[in-house]
Amino acid sequence: MKISEGFARHKRCLQMQKNEQKKILIVNYAPVILARYELRLAEMFARGGYETTVLHFGRMCGYKDSEVLLEVGNVKIYDFSYFKTRSLCHVLKTLKPNIVVTYASIYLFERIVYDACKILKIKCVCIAHGTMNSDFFKIRENDNSTMTKLKALPKYFRWLVLWGTVLKEQSSLFYFKSDFVKLIIDMMLKGKKVFRRGFCMDTAFVFSQVSKEEFIKNFGYPESKVKVVGNIYFDILKSSKESELNVDKNIIVLDKTVPTILYIAQPFVDDSMFGWNEFCEKKFYKSMVNELRGKYNILFKLHDRMDAIRIKNYFETGKEKINIFQSEPLDLLFSISNIVIGHNSTAIDFAFKYKIPIVLMPVSKDNEINDMYYNHYSRTGWVVKKACFGELDKVLKEVLNINCHEVYKLKKEMVENVIGPLDCRAGERIIACMNEMLSCEKVIAELI
Question: How much is the pTM?
């Protein structure tokens, strides 16, 4: 074939791609009702000409009351049980996506999805939903006690059955092969490490250069398969229009004479993390509010999985003046705040976008996660402090005297190396890369 003919076919492929409806399937193991993040991603993909479908495994993960189908606008959100099959490959054949999106590439779940896509020759990508660093990686590796393994057995059994249905597409005798038995033994002895062997998504989209280096070092990705795109949350967790943002600001009543604190709450009770229960949660929140009351406006931003009614019941109406939010866009809350307080949430990254200080508080006695995030953010040269009760007000007053805009001018390169570009163009970069992946695929098919 002449080179000119190849270019002509490439041009035709690009034109065909423009005319075709491209399909993305997002997979996650949460219940269907918790698909807010996926819906925001769907809006982003729609701007690039993609139709998005969401596949959740909520019922398989124990959310027995999860809906099996939810339609929001043009987006259909399925629970795996809707298809009345145990075969993931069968579901993928039914939905016919061009690209499958996961949020990680570490665990058995992503390995199953990857294997199914590989068998069916579907592109599979990972859009990281947080910043990866070595400390985080080590902590997750060390969470590998015998009790942890035993608690995880029912979940892993379900995943292994699902994985078996995928690998049976290659060999009906898979369950009887010695390497499958060895894999189960390795899982119990070595934990999560075994699931990372020998697989990399077609592309991993990460926040920053630091995250890229971790994917290459710890997950074995070749450099060409890891793309730095910036913080995807900056693109999708925001008001759609600046005018709407200004209107929302006026709705929130604040005392203009005192600074505003934004607290990023985490679902430690809802997810049974760090030994938290409702008593611990209530004690922590009330202690913080009592120390800050009257000196600051206090905004609580709840995680999607948290029970907002439970949190509101902790506080007496009129006495403890706090504003509790859950569905409001992060850019709105950060834009009216002077300081962010948090534990281990990626949402804290918005502090860099809005140039405000970060104060981290402990989540447990050993404080390992908190220290990890402190070390991570300290690498940026940013204004980040740790504080416990009794010294919180003192620390807040200290950081309020620092001009974060000047800090950013001096530390911009360090910030973007660790946090990623702050230009809110992660979505554009992801879509451009996906378009390139599909166009290359079409060219190869045409040439063959």
Answer: 0.80
